[in-house]
Amino acid sequence: MRIIRREDYRRMPWKNGQGMTEEILTFPAGSDADRFDWRVSIAHVGTDGPFSLFPSVDRTIVLLEGNGLLLDLPDDRTVTLTGTSDPFGFSGDWPVASRNLGGPTTDLNVMTRRGRYRHSMTRETFHASQRLQASDQTILVPTAAMRVQVGGGWSQINRFDTLELEHGEQAIIDAIGPIEIFVILCRATV
Question: Global pTM?
């Protein structure tokens, strides 16, 4: 188990230079935007404009903060992300543009290199204490503070910190009241 504090996320410009991201995790560790097998990050979308292209990458995005984000897709569809929307998956090959609704937004992104890894991201509600058994690489990003127990000790995890569990690890999640946690699974395809 590893806790990654938000203040320790690596901050950098987007690949296309038109925004800022907080990189949470990459695999292999330290990989740049063209060489990762998988990547988890938080993007800050301050203005309307194009997303960076990531050829041969599958992406999933969910809104963390803000009034909403419109994604203009290449097939003339527009998808609206709100604070209650399910995570939305799309190809990193697609030229996607976004428009903020009523101000800047912040979103959680997962990307996996097609043919090497695949991922899923779900929004789950945790109540009180729940046991979690990690399947594959399991990454949790809570929307409120919680505690986690692995072995005999408890650790505090704050809003938008990250908990990373390896395949087979177990943890007890203790939430004060119901909280939403984004659960990300990354698994090798080869």
Answer: 0.93
List b or e across 30-45, with b for residues whose CB sees 16 or more CB atoms inside 10 angstroms: eeebeebbbbbbbbbb
Domain, as residue range, for 52 = 2-115
Last residue of a domain, one of 115, 132, 161: 115
Q: What is the mean pLDDT of the chain?
A: 93
CA 83, 171, 2, 169: dihedral to nearest 10 degrees? -120
Residue that is last in its domain, among 65, 98, 115: 115
DSSP 6: G
Edge to edge, the sheet with strand 162-165 lists: 2-4, 162-165, 137-142, 179-188, 117-126
Q: What is the pLDDT of residue 63?
A: 97
Distance CA 182, CA 141 (A): 5
Q: Which DSSP letter does residue 9 get?
A: S
Following DSSP, what letter does each residue of 33-94 receive, concatenated? TTT-SEEEEEEEE-SSEEPPP-TTEEEEEEEEESS-EEEE-TTS-EEEE-TTPPPEEEETTS
